Amino acid sequence: MRYDLVRAFLFVFLSVAHSQITALQAQDEDLEELDLAALLDEKIIPANVLGTHTHMTGEWMVGYTYMLMPMEGMASGTQKLSNADVLQNYMVTPTSMDMQMHMFHVMYAPTDDLTLMGMAGYRDNSMDHITRMGTPFTTTASGFGDIKLGGIYHAYRKGFDKERILLSLSVSLPTGSISKTDFLANPAIGKKLLPYPMQLGSGTFDLHPGIKYINRGERSAWGADLDFTLRLGKNSHEYALGNSIEAKLWYRYQLNDWLAPFLQIDAKSTGRIKGRDPALNSMLVPTADPDNQGGKVVYLQSGFNIFFQGKTLDGQRLAVEFLVPIHQDLNGIQLRTRWHLRGGWQWVF
Ligand SMILES: [Cu+2]
Predict the structure, then answer these.
(1) Who contacts 236 (Cβ-Cβ below 8 Å, separation ≥6)?
(2) How far is CA 292 from the centre of its chain?
(3) pLDDT at residue 268, rounded to an integer
(4) What local confidence, expressed as pLDDT, does residue 250 receive?
(5) CA of 202 relative to ligand 1 center, distance in Å
(6) How confident is the model at residue 308, as a pLDDT?
(7) Residue ranges per structural domain of the chain
(8) Which of 85, 162, 171, 206 is deepest in the core (most CB within 10 A)?
(9) Ligand 1: distance of its center to the CA of 118 in Å?
(10) Pairing assessment for the beta strands 163-173 and 191-193 based on DSSP bridges
């Protein structure tokens, strides 16, 4: 059933993409044909709020994004597990988790070919558990996460930017805490170190190389992204989060000069944790086991961008996005993702 959905989606997606390519081939490459919407599109092309994009020479952008990512119910691989299943092997099982993020972005383009970016985020994690004895308890951790700095470079552009290839590279600095503690089921024993998914940063310097292809028509654009996260060495707690690779395929349509909906499919594979935090007991709860981290998830994503018009609001944009996982194959025993919601505001000046 789930795979039929994926196949149906891919078929529709590729058909739409193909009709766009055919339409593009019929167009001539006259700059004057670009309408106002397309010129605005030039400033802010990403299909989504977190997407790789560039700006024109001298442009600044500031942005804020809110993200909510609820998880609920345990699974092993693709198989759902009950609390009782998990409690056969562990003293405690998570039952749900809410992750919230407030992200702040700054971008600046010294030239048309190079855009610099910086990003910092405040994270708010909350996880509900139940013990083998039936006692429920909640742990929370909040604070700033890892700061990301980098650049995006135009490696290739053709026909007034109808086709482009962007290369991106950023470094994330280990500014987020990996030492967050909270009370567990028995507050009498004091606060304890929280497991890996509750911590706010990776604790390592991470490299994020990426490549993006964009093909833009007069009113629409489609593209593909490939992004990597590579952990450099181990952190001060003797572990490194898994490396990841993420592939995206997206299509966006500019309905009019203020509204642009999009559709995206997003496949991400994340490795297990290397090493282990010696202060965590992996027999206690699945989240404290470095083997119960990462996996393969495919998301279907949809949303829209609203471009504001008028003197004072010019260059401002709102984006709303909703992601649902259509396939989750988790490493070991973990919580399943329910959905992601993102809302973003961006201002280009
Ligand atoms: Cu930007």
Answers:
(1) 178, 203
(2) 20
(3) 97
(4) 93
(5) 25
(6) 82
(7) 2-348
(8) 206
(9) 10
(10) unpaired
How many whole angstroms from 223 Cα to the centroid of ligand 1? 17
User: What fold does the segment set 2-348 form as a domain?
Assistant: Lipocalin (2.40.128)
The number of beta carbons lying within 10 Å of the beta carbon of residue 329 is 13
Question: pLDDT at position 35, please?
Answer: 46
Report the sign of the C-alpha dihedral through residues 180, 207, 320, 18, in that order. Answer: negative
Res 15: pLDDT: 55
Distance 44 CA to ligand 1 centre (A): 6
pLDDT reported for residue 160: 78
In 3D, which of 347, 333, 331, 259 has the Cα closest to residue 43? 347
Query: 178 with 206: CB under 8 angstroms?
Result: no
Please state, in angstroms and rounded to a whole number, the distance separating the CA atoms of residues 227 and 244: 8
Q: What residues of the chain score a pLDDT lower than 70? A: 1-50, 311-312
Q: What is the pLDDT of residue 24?
A: 44
157 alpha carbon – ligand 1 mean position (Å): 18
Distance 233 CA to ligand 1 centre (A): 30
Q: How far is CA 163 from CA 13, 22, 35, 327, in A?
A: 19, 14, 17, 31
Which of these, 214, 272, 215, lies nearest to 243 by C-alpha position? 272
Q: Are 186 and 157 in contact (CB under 8 A)?
A: no
CA of 212 to the centre of ligand 1 (A): 15
* pLDDT for the residue 13: 47
Which of 261, 264, 241 is closest to 253 using CA atoms? 261
pTM of the model: 0.84
Which pLDDT value is given to residue 324? 97
Tokens of 65: 């994004």
Taking the centre of ligand 1 as the mean of its atom positions, its distance from the CA of residue 61, in whole angstroms, is 5
